[in-house]
């Protein structure tokens, strides 16, 4: 009888010990992409920037600084302090206003008039920290993709 209890108790104790650690706190590099770019009547741009949290815990996004290029032309800096908490393995969108460089403004206006897509890219940093505690860390980000005119929405690219 004693051996049978010992035989059953050891695997049960090992299973309980394995469960005692709680959920894993994995912190992963965040990402960003442009979800939508809207050309305003005054020529300025409103950029809907999608911030992606790949961590297994909620993260607080404190600052975003990205050097944007459109069609290979420097467009300016996307800079924002969102002070935004994003849940684990999810994303949120922030609107960032910017005054584009003249060459990039003309290039984008031409692409919109012709109804064609335009390549974009950015390089910069995202400052983020665990939402519950801890100091912020600066993550380097780089992305290249393309935006196309949104049908029926003048001045909007997605």
The biggest sheet, with number of strands, parallel, antiparallel or mixed sense and barrel status, is: 5 strands, antiparallel
DSSP E strands, number: 9
Shape: elongated
**CATH class descriptor name:** Mainly Beta
Q: Give the uncertain stretches in residue-range form.
A: none
Q: What share of residues is helical?
A: 10-25%
What class, by secondary structure content?
A: alpha+beta
Structural commentary:
It is a single chain. The protein is an alpha+beta fold and 158 residues long. It has one domain: Sandwich (Immunoglobulin-like). The chain has helices spanning 2-19, 102-114, and strands spanning 31-39, 45-53, 59-70, 73-80, 84-86, 90-98, 118-130, 137-147, 156-157. The strands form two sheets. Strands 3, 4, 5, 7 and 8 form a five-stranded antiparallel beta sheet that branches. Strands 6-2-1-9 form a four-stranded antiparallel beta sheet, with no helix packed on it. The protein is elongated. This is LEA type 2 family protein.
What labels would you give this structure?
158 residues; alpha+beta; Immunoglobulin-like; five-stranded antiparallel beta sheet; four-stranded antiparallel beta sheet; LEA type 2 family protein
